[in-house]
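Quick start: what a row looks like.
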Amino acid sequence: MAEAFALPFHFVDHLCHPGLNAAAGRIPLNAYLSKTASNGGNDSATSLFGKLRWMKDGGTGPTMNSLVGGKAVDLALKGQGSGDAFVAIWNFMCRNKEQLKKLDVEVCGRRDKKKPAEKVVLKTGNVYDLYFKGRSDSAAIQQMIADRFFGIDCVGYVANYLLYNHEWDEYKGAEPAQWPMWHCQGKVNKASEVKALDFLVWNGHIAMVDWIWSMVDAKTVQIDVCQSSSGGPQCNERVLLRETSATVSGRRQFLISGGTPKLPVDGLVVVARRAGFFW
């Protein structure tokens, strides 16, 4: 546990502005992807990874799974992969394009929240013809990101931010509701006590406080928030966080709203702090 060298918005920039440094060039990982069906699902990624991970480098070399690492591939599949893992996967694809002509996939849209059990198949074909034929390698990967083969969810963002800052030396999984119990146990009960690098936890979502601007009134603080949600990794500026009188599991609830661009998720949150981790 130590002082962070990068704020959450620096990590957004690392992922998206200009993006991850792959052999094909800088590629923005500017998409949200979650394996949870009610959050859109990861059907395109599942269609790709099930076959790609066992493809051999150059046709006879080690598999992608062994080169990247099975756990790293599993995390990338569910929207929680590291930047290094995504780059390794993209580089493998770009140097094995001939084999991609035989790798058939389903290109899928987001699952409907009202019908989460139904897969939304938009088109099918082999990866080379769908993406690499007639495109640069960079443009091919960017289109695959747009088509939901790669992306990062809310837990993937905050967990990899901790890894980026060397606060963790390995990935530690948890659902959003488990973070205050396992990874950021400190309680924040007043708006005036909120600090940069505090965690904002909804029922089913998690984000981070990037910056404190000022107190608007005795119970409301204006902050910047960083997260990955609809639209991918992002920074929402000048968000209002208002202390309420309600508590849940012994923690004060806050009402979060507004922002530029507008928060993709608002409503009630708790604020949790990781001991010894500060800016």
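That is the whole record. Residues 83-95 form the longest helix (13 residues). The chain has a mean pLDDT of 97.
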